[in-house]
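Postdoc handover notes: sequence design on the structure in folder B. Input tokens:
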């Protein structure tokens, strides 16, 4: 269901949008779910030989930075360029400092449906592909095909009942976790503990995200609409630990030459 997430609206206050991405970064660190997505990405990196990740729709940059860290632990060093249509520069700078140079941020806005040609490398989108309605989602994939750049789309939110129950607890999670969001902004105290705007925003966008997530079948339908006979597409799910939850992924890259 293609409803509207508040953070997608151009007029939405950046202090709230940045708070939302900081909350998602905290949730990712606490759950460790992003690291479970390394398998499909690592297989594609083996096939393509890429060592540069161009992360689109980065938000606060957390998942991409966590993935780079996990890859380094496995002996595979990659660099990550964080990009977004609404770049969160303080978050990008924080991620760069934490990564000791493996992660850099791009200050200029980047549209995932038309990525600048100079941004070459393995494109990744973590927990944001659902922001694009089907036609735009197809354009994101088609742009990667047109520019011959591999792409990986990963979502840890799924349209499963346990995930919905977790989202319904978002107001409580936001209230309790806010002091641990990084990089911290004092304005969040006002909009979380004094006026509970952040809780309402996070709950609404979380519910809309749950409704918008693409299933494996829907991802396959998007790929079927793209003229890419010489591309490899890997689409599937990854179990998120012991809980009855699954992440979805779509990875595409040109077939290696013999």
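Designed sequence:
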């Amino acid at each position: 269901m293609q409803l509207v997430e508040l953070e997608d609206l151009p007029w939405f206050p950046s202090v709230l949008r940045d708070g939302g991405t900081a909350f998602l970064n905290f949730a990712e660190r606490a759950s460790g779910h992003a690291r479970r997505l390394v398998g499909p990405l690592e297989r594609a990196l083996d096939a393509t030989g890429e060592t540069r990740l161009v992360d689109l729709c980065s938000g606060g940059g957390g998942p991409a930075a966590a993935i780079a860290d996990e890859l380094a632990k496995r002996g595979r060093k990659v660099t990550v360029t964080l990009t977004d249509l609404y770049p969160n520069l303080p978050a990008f700078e924080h991620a760069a400092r934490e990564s000791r140079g493996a992660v850099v941020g791009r200050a200029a806005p980047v549209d995932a449906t038309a990525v600048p040609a100079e941004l070459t490398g393995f494109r990744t989108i973590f927990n944001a592909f659902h922001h694009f309605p089907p036609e735009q989602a197809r354009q994101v994939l088609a742009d990667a095909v047109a520019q011959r750049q591999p792409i990986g789309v990963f979502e840890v939110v799924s349209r499963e009942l346990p995930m919905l129950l977790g989202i319904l607890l978002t107001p409580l999670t936001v209230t309790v976790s806010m002091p641990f969001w990084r990089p911290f902004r004092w304005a969040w105290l006002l909009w979380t503990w004094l006026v509970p705007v952040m809780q309402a925003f996070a709950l609404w966008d979380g519910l809309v995200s749950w409704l918008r997530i693409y299933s494996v079948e829907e991802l396959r339908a998007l790929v079927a609409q793209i003229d890419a006979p010489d591309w490899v597409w890997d689409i599937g799910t990854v179990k998120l630990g012991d809980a009855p939850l699954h992440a979805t992924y779509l990875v595409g890259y040109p077939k290696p030459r013999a």
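Context for whoever picks this up: DSSP finds ten helices and seven strands in the chain. Don't rerun without checking with the PI first.
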